[in-house]
Amino acid sequence: MNHGERFVFIAEWYDPNASLFRRYELLFYPGDGSVEMHDVKNHRTFLKRTKYDDLHLEDLFIGNKVNIFSRQLVLIDYGDQYTARQLGSRKEKKEAMDFHIDHQSKPFLNELIQLITSGPTIAMEILRDDAICEWKRLLGPANSGMARTDAPGSLRALFGTDGIRNAAHGPDSFASAAREMELFFPSSGVCGPANTAKFTNCTCCIIKPHAISEGLLGKILMAIRDAGFEISAMQMFNMDRVNVEEFYEVYKGVVSEYNEMVTEMYSGPCVAMEIQQNNPTKTFREFCGPADPEIARHLRPGTLRAIFGKTKIQNAVHCTDLPEDGLLEVQYFFKILDN
């Protein structure tokens, strides 16, 4: 082992006293198991190089939480190109291999792993009677070419290319479904795969519960994409009243519909997104339109709220109002609630 080798990560710690995230550069020396930390904002050493037996090389991957002397840090990025090259795809490939364990002996395994680790994926829990069989029927044959002949209305026929790039995956059995659910949504309380939020040049959008229950999720996502916005992170949340009141605190005493806004947001699942573009908060707020859909339909008929909104409370989406709040709202969902 190269005793001079070191790996560098950017890590964040939530300071409950100051109610803010503090960012550090975390250095790990595998040769002797020592660690070192630098305060990024203040450009000073926070922890001198010290041997620390409770941190191991296999713990170091983006999205993981590590404890350094009782301080829980979240690894959010690589600190240098060497670390990114050496460790970048190791965790992702292991997760992909675990997910596709049923294909370990297949000749197309490497191509499949390369595809699934090439970018973000969306995992869903789907509920209905006989869900596994019905989802398989909706997907169609595994090979998209065959699907276009045998099941032309199936998802793989419509959106797939071949036997590898076939749009979507579905488990073959109850056992596979249970194993795959445990990989993405662990029941034991441990963390599943890290979310994809980038926390830079971003704003927040929340698709409200009424829009989810009305089956508008797909249409709203397509409208956002077609307008040229990048959805860099997306996750479904079931918020409780305390969370909603905390998130909407800035509107309390300012907006007369505050109580109704709170009730709507915890009435069912919502979908939170990190949206990226140039000047994202202003541009995306304009795309959402006025808060009252009736006004939006008269003044901005092509906006999200004009098209999908019903009332000032059930207006399809929440979007960040102020540029300085974009990152804070994204952090609330993808750092605080997700953790």
Automatic annotation (TrEMBL):
A biological process from GO: UTP biosynthetic process
Gene3D superfamilies: 2.30.29.170, Nucleoside diphosphate kinase-like domain (3.30.70.141)
UniProt name for this protein: Nucleoside diphosphate kinase homolog 7
Family named by the database record: Belongs to the NDK family.
Active site: H169
SUPFAM superfamilies reported for this sequence: Nucleoside diphosphate kinase, NDK
Keywords on record: Cell projection, Cilium, Cytoplasm, Cytoskeleton, Flagellum, Hydrolase, Kinase, Nucleus, Transferase
Domain DM10: 3-91
Secretion signal span: none
Location within or outside the cell: Cytoplasm, Cytoskeleton, Flagellum axoneme
GO molecular function, one term: 3'-5' exonuclease activity
InterPro entries xrefs: DM10_dom (IPR006602), DM10_NDK7 (IPR057579), NDK-like_dom (IPR034907), NDK-like_dom_sf (IPR036850), NDPK7 (IPR011410), NDPk7B (IPR037993), Nucleoside_diP_kinase (IPR001564)
Keyword Hydrolase: yes
Annotated CDD domains: NDPk7B (cd04412)
Classification via Pfam families: NDK (PF00334), PH_NDK7_N (PF25364)
Cellular component, GO annotation: axonemal microtubule; centrosome
